[in-house]
Design goal:
The structure is a single chain. The protein is 45% helix and 12% strand. With 212 residues, it is of the alpha/beta class. The longest helix is centred in the last third of the chain and has 28 residues. It is globular and about 60 Å long. The relative contact order is 0.14. The structure holds 5-O-phosphono-beta-D-ribofuranose (RP5).
C-alpha cells in the first residue's frame, strides 16, 4: 500500500534505524491532531505559540529534513498525527520518538475527545510528553490521565508555555538552553520594570496615549 500516511510511517521507522548523532536529530517533537490546530500550537494565532517561543525567544530552529539539519544547535520537528483518523501514524510516531533522538514531545489536540496527547504519552513512555489542550473544552480529556500514566499539561492554548517547559527539560542536560531560558526571563523582568517606570513617571493619561 502506498499512501501519504504509509510513507510517513515508513519514514519514521526508517529514521529510527539510522542511529544519527544527537546533534543531527530534533530535540523536541511537536505533534497536533489537525492542521487547524496550527495557529494555537505554533504561531499566528491570538497569542504566541510554541514556534514563537522556540524560534524567537530560545534560538531553536525547525528541522524539516533529517538528512540536512539546520545550523542551530537545538531543533524541533512538527507533524500532524490525528489520534482518531491516523491512529497508526500516532502510534509509530510515539513508538519511534526516543530512537529518533527526541528528548521530549509536545502534543496538542482540540475537541472534547482530545486523545492525541494522552495516547502519545502512553505509547512514548518514559519519554516526557507535554499536552496542550487546543480548546477550553479539551482540558479534561488532556489532563485526565489515570494514576501511573503521566502527562504534564499546560492550560488551554498555552503552547508557548509548553515550549518553555520542554526547554526546561532540555536545560537539565544543556547549559546553553538553561542560559537562554534565564535570559528570556530577564527580558520579561526588564519589560515590567520599563513599563512600571514609564507609567509612574509619565502618569496614566500619557501612558494610555503612548501607542495612539
Ligand atoms: C480537531 O480535530 C481538533 O483540533 C483535533 O486536534 C483534531 C483531531 O481530532 P481527531 O482527528 O484525532 O479526532 O477538531
Amino acid at each position: 500500500m502506498s499512501d501519504s500516511v504509509t510513507e510517513l510511517i515508513d519514514r519514521l521507522r526508517d529514521e529510527a534505524t539510522q542511529d544519527r548523532p544527537a546533534e543531527e536529530t530534533p530535540d523536541v517533537g511537536i505533534v497536533m491532531g489537525s492542521d487547524s490546530d496550527l495557529e494555537t500550537m505554533m504561531t499566528g494565532g491570538k497569542r504566541r505559540g510554541a514556534y514563537d517561543a522556540f524560534v524567537d525567544e530560545l534560538g531553536f530552529a525547525e528541522q524539516t529534513d533529517y538528512e540536512n539539519p539546520p545550523d542551530e544547535q537545538f531543533t524541533f520537528e512538527t507533524y500532524v498525527t490525528s489520534a482518531h483518523r491516523t491512529p497508526d501514524l500516532m502510534t509509530v510516531y510515539a513508538e519511534t520518538a526516543e530512537e529518533r533522538g527526541l528528548e521530549v514531545i509536545i502534543a496538542g489536540a482540540g475537541g472534547k475527545s482530545a486523545d492525541l496527547p494522552n495516547m502519545t504519552a502512553s505509547i512514548a513512555y518514559p519519554l516526557p510528553v507535554i499536552g496542550v489542550p487546543v480548546q477550553e473544552k479539551s482540558v479534561d480529556s488532556v489532563i485526565g490521565m489515570p494514576t501511573g500514566a503521566p502527562l504534564v499539561a499546560v492550560d488551554a492554548g498555552k503552547s508557548f508555555n509548553a515550549a518553555l517547559s520542554a526547554a526546561q527539560i532540555l536545560a537539565r542536560q544543556h547549559d546553553e538552553v538553561r542560559e537562554r531560558l534565564v535570559a528570556y526571563h530577564e527580558d520579561l523582568r526588564e519589560g515590567v520594570g520599563a513599563v512600571s517606570r514609564e507609567l509612574h513617571d509619565g502618569g496614566t493619561p500619557a501612558f494610555q496615549d503612548r501607542d495612539r
